[in-house]
Each structure stands twice: as C-alpha cells, then as structure tokens.
Amino acid sequence: MSVWPRVSIITPSLNQAAFIQEAIESVLAQEYPNMEYLVIDGASTDGTVEILKRYADRLNYWVSEPDRGQSHALNKGLAAASGDIVGWLNADDLYLPGSIKEAVSVFQGNPDVDVVFGKAVFIDTCGGELGVFPARAIVHNDLLQSLPIPQPAAFIRVSALRLVGGLDEGYHYAMDTHLWLRLLRRGSCFMYVPRRWAAMRIHPEAKSIRVPFMWWQEFARMLNELFLVATEGDGGESRAVSFGAPIVREAIGRACWHAAWHAWLAGERGVAKANVQRAVQMLPSYLAGSEFRDSVLYELLASVRREAVRSETSWSRARDGWHAAQQFATILPRSRWRSLFLTSLRAAYFAEIYARSGLSWRQKAVAICQVAIAEPKRLLRSAWHRLARRISGRRYNNRDGCVRGGSG
C-alpha cells in the first residue's frame, strides 16, 4: 500500500487545442507516485480530441461529449475520480515541477487542513512570464473581495468537497471563488504555502479576459446568496463565518460598479445600466473612491502601456480613453459622486498619460492643462509644481511663476 495518498487531477476542456498538450505534459511530468489524471472535454471541434487520443494510454480517464459548462465538466470528473485529494487544472494552465508532491506533503503534515494553495505566475500565449498572482494567507475580509487564491495552485481534500456537494453548476465564470466561499462558510481550513506551484495563462480567448463583467456579476450574486439573503431555506446549514448586512451590501455595491464598467467596455450597455442601478442602491460613494477610479484608469491606459504614445495616432487613442470614461458617465445618475469621479479621473488620467509617454510639447501642455482644470484648488499649486518640474527639468517657483536653476 502506497504511503502517498491518491491524488486526482481533473482538466476540463473546450476547444483548447492550442494549449492542452502543454497542460497534459505538465501533469504527466509531476512524477508523483500515486496520481490519476482525468480530462473532461466538452465535445471540442478544434483538434483537441486528436490530442487526447494520442495521450489515451497515459490518461486514467477521458471523455469528449457535450456538457452544460465548465462546472458540470468538473463535477463529472469528480464523480469519476477515486483520489483523496483533488487538483483542478484548466486546459490552458500549467503545473510547475514538483507542485503535487509538495502540496501532498503539506496535507500530510497538517491533517486538519482542507485546502492548500501556493503561488502562481501569469504567462502569455507563448509561455513567457508576465507577473505573479498576488497570493497570500486569507484574512476575514477577503471573503467579501476577490480571494487571494490562484485556482490552479490549489488542492482540496475530497472529504471537504463532498460536504458542499461539489461545484454549483449555476456558476460559469466565478465557480472557483464560489467554491472557496462555500468551503470557508462551512469552516474548512485553508493554508497558504509561499511556493510557486502553477502558471496561469493570459490570452484573448480566456473567459476572464473576454468577458470580465460576467465574473463580477457572478461575484455580486454569490455574496447576495451566501451572506445577505435570509437563511430560512438553508436547511440548518451551519455557518462558520458571517458579516453584518451593511458590510455585505458595500461588497455587492463594489462588485456591481466593476461589473458596470467592464460591461460598458464590452459594449453591453443594458447590462452596464442594470449594474449601475444596483450599485447606486448599494454603495453610491464607491464611485468617487480611488479604488474604482484606479481600476477604470488601468483599463483606459491599456493602449498606452502597449505603445510609447509618440505618434499622433497613439495620442489620439489615449484621448479616446478619456472620451470613453465621459461616455460611461452618461449612464450615471447626476450626483456629487459622479462629479467627484470625473474630476478625480481626469486629473489622474492625464497625469498618467504625461508620466508614461514621450509626448510632443503641445501634447504635454494639453495634459498639464487637463490636470490643472481637474485638480481641486487646494491641490492646484502642488500639482502644477510637480508637472512643471517634469516638463522643464528645472525648479518651478509657485509664488511668482518663474523657473529657477538649470541652463538653456
């Protein structure tokens, strides 16, 4: 009898022929002595089935047939699995060498732990590293935000999964977050290990990239279902964590604001308006906060990050970002929060445009004027002082408007 507990790795797949071979190889290269590998494909038509056939003798189980989505595919895999510990690796992600054995060692040394998770890196289509997922140990308030758990770097005891009945097939974008919240609500113990265990691929066809507003909508929905709705219908289910209703409403409001903005960017105007209406009911003040402004700013500057903004075309694209924000503001109710949002965003946006790019002198002047117009009067002098020093490379005197020092 093996001293290593059996580990089941499940890969759900749908038309991932470009990446699934790398995912399979990363699992088979783990060299864990007691592992089974299951691939559940949703009737792919892009060549995935041919790849699975080539690996058929090295897979414990695989199937390619229509399903009801990723959560359904994972539940099918769980029903066929025989392991004590489960890992879930999407077809476009990878395991890093030795990750399964390290995770199992943590379980063996901590019998009270139900879920262990490590670090994950972001990679591009070709496998180049883009950054590191901000994983860390969970704190109480994380339950109302985006949890710091990189899904492919997480491993779960089957006994804990059975307590919550697997994945909820009503969720298609945030099913992993929903699972973590249900486990935490039942009192499951999570343990973070600061070791790199997985790679998460960022590519245009990834669901989280293609339609991020759907993730935010599902997140708002699960917060409402798990922490806000009355519990009479829970059948006596125990809850290890709870929050006051005002705190939950704030979290739902934040999620709705993000869903509205991302839906607007995706051209889903009706969805954006519906989320704005709910966000205003839950947390109108979040609109004027720096967190939401910085999220919007990040999206607006996407094209600026990809280019040096040295041409008229790229400068026009940068200005188009500001026009997009102004258009988004047309679906916001008239209030001081909307005014503060636009004022703060204008100042931050054009300051970032100036700081990140090699603009012409005319474009620099436009950026500085936009900041000066937007900044509240009490901040105007200091803002002008900082930007004037950048633009001239000399020291600017706030009192008389003269430039001191330097040559030329």
Task: Describe, in plain words, how this protein is organized in 3D.
By secondary structure, this protein is of the alpha/beta class. The chain folds into 3 domains: 7-209, Spore Coat Polysaccharide Biosynthesis Protein SpsA, Chain A, CATH 3.90.550.10; 211-282; 294-408. The chain is 48% helix and 14% strand. It has 16 helices and 11 strands. The chain has helices at 20-28, 48-54, 70-80, 99-109, 158-164, 175-185, 207-210, 212-228, 245-265, 269-282, 290-300, 302-306, 312-329, 336-356, 361-374, 377-392, and strands at 7-13, 35-41, 61-64, 85-88, 94-95, 115-123, 129-132, 154-157, 190-201, 395-396, 403-404. Strands 1, 2, 3, 4, 5, 6, 7, 8 and 9 form a 9-stranded mixed beta sheet that branches. The protein has a two-stranded antiparallel sheet with strand order 10-11. α1 links the parallel β1 (7-13) and β2. α8 runs antiparallel to α9, α11 (290-300) crosses α14 and α14 (336-356) packs antiparallel against α15 (361-374). The longest helix has 21 residues, at 245-265. The radius of gyration is 25 Å and the shape is globular. The protein starts with 6 loop residues before the first strand and ends with a strand.
